[in-house]
Amino acid sequence: MSNKNKKIQNRYNRISKVYDLLEKPMESMSMAKWRKKLIKRIEGEKILEVGVGTGKNLSYYPEKTNVIGIDFSKNMLEKARDKVENRKNIKLIEMDAEDMNFVDNTFDTVVTSCVFCSVPDPIKGLKEIRRVCKNNGKIIMLEHMRSNNEFVGKFMDIVNFIPLNIWGANINRQTMKNLNKAGFKENDIEYQDIWSDIVKLIEIRNNK
Ligand SMILES: C[S@@+](CC[C@H](N)C(=O)[O-])C[C@H]1O[C@@H](n2cnc3c(N)ncnc32)[C@H](O)[C@@H]1O
């Protein structure tokens, strides 16, 4: 793993103890509702969740699905394990999203939420998702990103160093552009703005 990745991994290992507590206000305001909406969109039985973190989406997966959750932070995964002790259909693995240990075309649906703000090389991570998701499979994402509003976008650039240093998360990622750079075609991507133009629910048909 590169030094850049180790640095972000260490930040998540450090914040893991208080992560759920810090996120609680946002969770109760709207995130929990958006997570439910996201997971309702899964298709098929073989599901991969990338950057599963402390496992906040895990309770929404139906029993009939086989879910693998990966994350490169051991401590975040430990918190997720506490949440799924009795769920036999959920497996959690320490793995780098930029270099996944799965063969091509493994999953029916790949899920991410608030992950592509943090993956150190987002294009590499998105290319990996494209590779491990089946041809014609689905990728669903709940992601925040840089606003297209000139003033708001610039402000996000200026203050980005704060969450990046505390958490490991960027608030100014250009995730829609990164999807195109990773090879996803414009026509295969649908999205809804769910909070201003900053938080989006994205659905991609993985036409390879
Ligand atoms: C902001 S947290 C979001 C966690 C969770 N998805 C959620 O919705 O609460 C971002 C997560 O992505 C993980 N992450 C970032 N880059 C990664 C990478 N290259 N490989 C695996 N996990 C990564 C971090 O360790 C962290 O747990």
Helix content: 25-40%
Strand order of the largest sheet: 3-2-1-4-5-7-6
Task: Work out the strand percent.
Answer: 15-25%
Mean pLDDT: 97
Please tell me how large the radius of gyration is: 16 Å
Task: Label the structural class.
Answer: alpha/beta
The poorly predicted ranges are: none
What distance separates the N and C termini? 27 Å
Give the overall shape: globular
Describe the biggest sheet? 7 strands, mixed
Catalogue the ligands.
S-adenosylmethionine
Write down the secondary-structure element order. HEEHEEHEHHHEE
Strands, total number: 7
Number of helices in the DSSP assignment: 6
Report on the structure:
With 208 residues, the protein is an alpha/beta fold. 39% of the residues lie in helices and 24% in strands. The protein is built from 6 helices and 7 strands; from the N terminus they run αββαββαβαααββ. A 7-stranded mixed β-sheet has the order 3-2-1-4-5-7-6. β4 (107-113), α3 and β5 (133-144) form a beta-alpha-beta unit. α1 runs parallel beside α2. It starts with a helix and ends with a strand. Bound molecules: S-adenosylmethionine (SAM). S-adenosylmethionine (SAM) is lined by residues 5, 8, 12, 51-53, 56, 70-73, 76, 96-98, 113-115, 118-119, 125, 169. Residues 5, 8, 12, 51-53, 56, 70-73, 76, 96-98, 113-115, 118-119, 125, 169 line the site of S-adenosylmethionine.
